[in-house]
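Bug: token stream looks shifted between consecutive jobs. Job 1:
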Amino acid sequence: MVREAAYSLQLPGDRAALHGLAFHLIEGVFGGRAPEPPALDAIDPPKLVPHTTDLVAEELASHASLALDAAQAPDPGLQAARILYLRRAAEYAQQQYRIGATVTAWEQLAALLEGVPRGEALRRAADTLRMIGEVQRAEPLYQQALSIHSEAGNRHSTANTLGNLATLYMETGRVPLAVQLYEEALELARVDGNRSLAALVKAALALALFETGRVRDAESMLGEALTVQRELGQRNFERTSLSHLSHMCKGTGRALQAEQATRQALALSRELGNRRGEGHALGQLAALHFESGKPDQAEELYVRALAIARETGDRRSAGVVLGNMAALYHTTGRMEQAAQAYEQALVIHRESGNRRGEGIVLGNLAQLYAGNGHTGKAEQTYQQVLAIFRGIANRREEMIALGSLALLYQESGRTEQAEKTYLEALAGHRELRNRRFEGVVLGNLATLQRDVGRTAEAARGFEQALTLHREVANRHTEGSHLCEYAHCLLDMQRQDEAARTWRQGAAILAELKDSAELRQKTIRMREACARAGIVPFDDDPHGRPRTG
């Protein structure tokens, strides 16, 4: 307190001198003036060369600022140093994932600059905010940056900012607007002759097209982007495109190709020291393991991905991983953990504006409600989900939700409505080349057909569904539908084949630790065997007729 009081009693000129002295002493102790970084608006700039002053860049910028604020005359040299160390402080804080310090430094730097450099500082502040889900703060900064760059006629910076703003729109569910901005950015990059930026925008646009159902266009565009990025040696951009490729392959049922792309993205992330990218790739790999029937490996990877998301301040990714972990808990019967994780994910998705993530979590919660017998609440939630996906023009997720709603109709006895909804979802999945969910809907529809006595039609549907499940490595649904197919075979008097089929399905569900599903299938099987007058399949491997 005495020191602070003494400091406050100093004349402004004396305080300026003290801060100036502190600045020069600290700078000298840490190796002298840091080198100038590349220009903020440089095209494909080299990486910032580290310097020992990076450790104290925030402190140096603060002393320079205080010295200038209290000085009686301008000091151009100190002003230049203030700008230099604010820039280095922002970049160093970003490397350390100190998000608040990063944003503060970029915004303080923007206040000292004019023209395109000011716009670029604002854009980088917005980028940092977007990555942690602070979209309401990020959007106006992007808009300010875009206005500055457009007014200056700087095509490269305008295209770059348009692409970033489009990504924010994409992440907050404004997909048609995102596509429009990506296309504007791509045209500017082409006119500017910037192949690197054009490829980066193409990769992002490809993902947006994929989500709206333009699968072939998306895959073609992403392939073009990857070719250019590899040709130019842009390893970090290639990593992002590989992540998009994994998402597309997974969405079209190509599990092996999805895993290959994810492992390549993971290797690149580690090679480049990109912790955020590493966490994202681990989360993608976990989802692939979960869907192919390896819940233990999936859970281990989810835990690691969540830890990295929290370490790097990536709240959006943390929300996605929490939602996926909740689905894993749900499937393996840990309902209390599932409910808690769903709620945590939902809070993050809503705070960060992730409408797609919100819709997916709500869809899973609807399944939870249905499983607990709350049919009305489940149906109401599915309608919310459909409204979200239709609002963000995501036909892929809309069709998935429609198939889930059809199952709810079926389980609540509304057979005609269920079949109509199944057929609509099936047509959508085929159009979108979503083979995983085409198989899911085919098998569920076959179950309905069997229940209403259309046995031969149901058998064909089960066989088609099981072929698709095996092609896309959908082990869980394969196990479930094998158990249902066994009922169909039993109706056709193929008892030995029915017993073998049911036991195959039950073994898969047991392997995947889905005790709830296995319990349900066992109850249904025992009821069917009782009606047929045979020993239950889990009691007698041959399913022999009962004796009186």
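Job 2, same session, no restart:
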Amino acid sequence: MIQQLEEADTSECIGAGFWVATIIGDGHSLSGRAAHLLRSKGIPFLDGVFSGIVDSHTERSASRWVLRLAIERLVSSSSDTLTIRSVSNALAIIAGADKIDFNQVAGTLTLSDEHRDLIWECAISKRRRDGVSASNDVQEPELEHVTHGSVVASYLKDDWTGGIGSTITSARFDLSVCVGFSRLLVAISAFHNLRTRASFLDVILELTSTKEPLLSCLSSYQRARFPALDRSVPLKKLRAIVEKQTDGEFESSLKTRKLGAFVLRRWAITFSVTGNQQLDDFAALVTERPAVAVILVFGQFSRRFPGEAIDSALVDRFRAQALETPSVFVDHAEILGAIFLNKDICSARDAIVREAERFPTRMPRLLSWCRLHPFVIRLPDERALLPPLLAGVIRHCRFEVRSPFEEFDVAKLLLQYEMKHEELVSIADDLGTPLFQRGAAVVFGMLQAGAFARTLARFESILLECAVERNELLIDAISFAISIKGSHQELSCTSFVGRLFDVLKHDYVGRRKVQSILDIWRERSIAPVTTSNAMTKWISSSD
């Protein structure tokens, strides 16, 4: 495998990289050589290896030399190479290590004690989310519990709302010695301690220097040290407002929790639901914490009471909130039928569509499952909703389809949205429509009854272009559509999958998604014992 890493093209040896990282231990004579080879293959390759380690759940047995590579990824890489996935995978490997090992390895990288502790705190939150005890690893700060209707939210008692007044010197937080993700960690810590206009601007600068906003990679405590800005807030515009303020004006903004027209919210550490709630008990939460209200009302609560109708007054509250924070509802497009009430045209609907139009390349946050509420979509006017809606539909289908071999009529489900095939084709043909909206239209067209083959044949170039742009949502959607509608017996389908693999040869995460198609096809045998429905009899035969 070492020889394969040395001689093969990077696109042909990702498997060797994964096995080298999981098999070669610290005492092995080849560990140093293996680390050098993985570094030399470049950041995308290393991210692919990390992704394989995490997906195979082997991060808790990673060797110290692999742990060092993960730490290096966070403290040495340029910010513009960082994504939520790359940071999350590196943090997962760090979280799988013993704290003593982490401290020793981090010490060889000349990290300060405070810098090292920030990385460990961030990583260990991953272990907590996975249900592994970490109570002795990080000191938990004091919390403040606030009631929002029937929901109790826990906030940091000492957070940014306390205003400015720290006596800690800013020299303690020197960003000039930090690189990559670690700069964001230090900038957040600096703002928490200093709460100055300059430290706020440092955080905004770090958030805008990466391909994706990395706040979701922080621990809950770290995120709570900075305002929970709504996703629809344009950070560059927010920065411009703060740059024009004096230090005194900024301090007043923190106290009033408002920057211009933007509301500064506190980030809650946890939420807990109390008592025997009814749906209308969540009305207050809709205004105060809309994203949480959506997940509770349409997700967790709907599982407990699947047949209970949502009160019209609560719907009106959601509609009013959609005007204030439309990004929350774009991220959960699967529940829009409950807000739109099918063909109803309302200002909330227009606001959500405009939000989707503003960010045509943004992928929705798939934070939690929500029950599907279909609506009649108005095409082509609401084409901007196609990508987030596709994410919601596929998430719903994957929840309902326990295995890829169970029958699930996706085409029948899509009839509730009344998408006409000719409308989807027209959107896909329109060169003036953003690429990912065109790609979503193609996938929806493929999923319609009897339209898979002809839609794929006509628009495969659009799908390949989406893959080139590395849009994970579309790559996942394409893989899903082919796995349930395509056939390994159709030459056009297998040829397309081959071209898709070629396009994704350097996108190791994308390749893993497409690999699922081959995994399913391998199980769909065309041997006579299968096609004659005699498999069970053949297996159980004692002859």
